[in-house]
What we know:
Blueprint: H1 3-15, E1 18-19, H2 20-29, H3 51-54, H4 56-72, E2 79-84, H5 90-99, H6 105-108, E3 109-114, H7 118-127, E4 134-136, H8 139-146, E5 151-156, E6 165-170, E7 173-182, E8 186-193, E9 209-212, H9 214-225, E10 231-240, E11 250-253, E12 256-258, E13 268-270, E14 273-274, H10 275-284, E15 288-294, H11 295-302, H12 304-318, H13 323-340, H14 345-348, E16 349-355
Parallel strand pairs: 2-3, 2-5, 3-4, 5-10, 10-14
Antiparallel strand pairs: 1-7, 6-7, 6-9, 7-8, 10-16, 11-12, 11-13, 15-16
The structure holds S-adenosyl-L-homocysteine.
S-adenosyl-L-homocysteine is lined by residues 29, 36, 42, 50, 52-53, 84-87, 91, 114-117, 120, 156-158, 161-162.
Amino acid sequence: MTPIEKILIGKIENEGPVSLETFMEMALGHPEHGYYRTRDPFGAKGDFTTAPEVSQMFGELIGLWCADLWMQMGKPENFILSECGPGRGTLMADALRAARSVHGFSQAVEIHLIETSPFLREKQKKTIHTYSPHFHENIEGLRNVQRGRPLILIANELLDALPIRQFSWRDRQWKERFVNYKIDMGFHFIWKNSSLPHTSLFEPEENAICEIGLARDAFVRDAAALTKNGGAALFIDYGYMKTAPGDTLQALKDHKFEDVLDNIGEADITAHVNFETCTREAGEQGAEVFGPVTQGRFLLSLGLAQRSEALIQSVSAGMKDSIGAQNTVQEIKSAVLRLSSPSEMGQLFKVLCVSHDKSIRPAGF
Ligand code: SAH
C-alpha cells in the first residue's frame, strides 16, 4: 500500500468518500507524499515524456516566441518571464539560450517559477542557475511581486495536472464522482447526488460523463489578469477545443496507462484540458484570446522545420559521416515528427495565448 493510499483510507473512514477533485489534489500534490513532490517523473526512466524533453527545439522556439513578443511589447528594460510547472527546467533553459541572440533580452528578463514541488525546484535551480530564478507556490505569489511590470508567462502540461470534477446525469439527477474505499472492494468510484456548477455547459444525457475544471479555468483567467501591464500568457497542453462529454481521466506509470485507482500517488493522474471553458472567463474579463491552435501548426509556423534543418547541418558538419552523426540526424528528424505530426503530439496538443495587452500580436496563431 502506498503512503497516499493509507492517508486516503483514514480520510474516507473519518469523513466519507472524497470528491475526484480532492482525490487528484492529494494524489498529485500532497505536501509530503504527492506524486510530484517525491520524484522526477520525466523521460525514459520516468513515467512520461514532455515536449521539452523530446527535443531542445521545442524550448528554443518558445524562447524565440518570447523574444519576438518582448520586441512587440517595446523591449521593456525589466520584465518578468514566468513558467508555471517547469518540470526539470529544460524548456526554460532552452528558451533562455535561444533568446540570448536577441540583443537586450537577457539583461531585461527576471525569471519567476511557479512550482509546488520542492524536489523539482532543486532541479530547476540547477538547470537555470545563471538566471537566479525566484520561486512561488502559486499565481498569487507572483502577483505579489509583479509591481506593475510586464509579464510573459508559459505553462506546458500544467493545466492537465490541475484537478477536475466529473458529473453524470443518472436517474434524472446530476451526480458527482467520488472515490470510496471498502476493505472487501478496495478503492472504487461512486456517484453522489450533486448539482452541476456550470448549468448551461452540458445537456443532461443519461450516463455521459461531463468534466469541469474550475481550477484550470481560474488559472488561465488569473494568468491573463497579470498581463494588464503588457505581455501574454501561453498555455500548451493536450485537450479539446469544444466542450463535449467524455471521460478523459487517465493515469500513467512507466509510460503505460493504468487504472486511476491503482498505485495512488505513484502514477501521474491527469485529464484532457477543455480549452473552450479555459478561455471563457479570461475572455469575459476583456482578455484577447489567440487560438487554440494545434501544437503542430504552432511549431511549424514558428519555424520548426527550418530550426531542425539548421541543427542537422551543424551536426553533419561537426561529425562527418560518423555513425554518431547519422543517429543524431535521425533523432532530430524523429523529434520533429513527434512534436508536430498529427498522429503524435501535433494534433492532440493545443496552444492557447491570452492577453490584456491590446498592442501585441503573438506569433504562431
Ligand atoms: N512543464 C514541464 C513539466 C510538466 S509536468 C514539462 O513540460 O516538462 C507538471 C509540472 O507542474 C511539474 O513541474 C509539477 O510539479 C508542477 N505542478 C503540478 N501541480 C502544480 C500546481 N498546482 N502549481 C504549480 N505547479 C504544479
